[in-house]
Amino acid sequence: MDLSQALATFLDESRELLAQMEEILLRAETAALPTDELHALFRCAHTIKGSAGLFGLDAVVHFTHAVESVLDRMRNGELELSDALINLLLESQDHIASLVAAVAAELPPPEFEGAPLRARLEAFCATTPATPAALPATVAGGDPVVCSATEAAPALEVGGSVALGAEHWHLSLRFAPEVLRNGMDPLAFIHYLRTLGELVHVETIADTLPELAAGDPENCYLGFEIALRSTAPRAEIEAVFEFVQDSARIVLVPPAARVEEYLALIEALDEDPRRLGEILVTCGSVTARELEAALAAQHVQAEAPRVGELLVEHAGVPAQVVQAALGKQKAAEERRASETRSVKVPADRLDALIDQVGELVIAGAATQLQAQQAGSRALQETAANLLRLVEDVRDAALRLRMTPIGEVFNRFPRVVRDLARELGKDIELVIRGAEAELDKSMVEKIGDPLMHLVRNALDHGIESPERRAAAGKPARGRVELRAFHESGSIVIEVADDGGGLDARRILAKAVERGLVAADAVLSEAEIHRLVLAPGFSTAAELTSLSGRGVGMDVVKSSVDALRGTLDIHSAPGCGTTMRLCLPLTLAIIDGFQVGVAGATFILPLDAVVECIELPADAGAAGYLDLRGQVLPFLRLRALFALEGAPPPRQNVVVVRFGGRQAGIAVDHLLGECQAVIKPLGPLFERVAGIAGSTILGSGEVALILDVPQLVQRAIAHEGRDTGGAPRARFLAA
Amino acid sequence: MDTPALDTPAAGVARLAPEGELGIYTVAALREAWLQALATHEALEIDLGRIDEIDTAGLQLMLMAKRSVGRSVRFVNHSAAVLRLLDLARLGGALGDPLLEDAAPATQEAR
Question: Catalytic activity annotated for this protein (chain A) (predicted)?
Answer without folding.
Answer: ATP + protein L-histidine = ADP + protein N-phospho-L-histidine
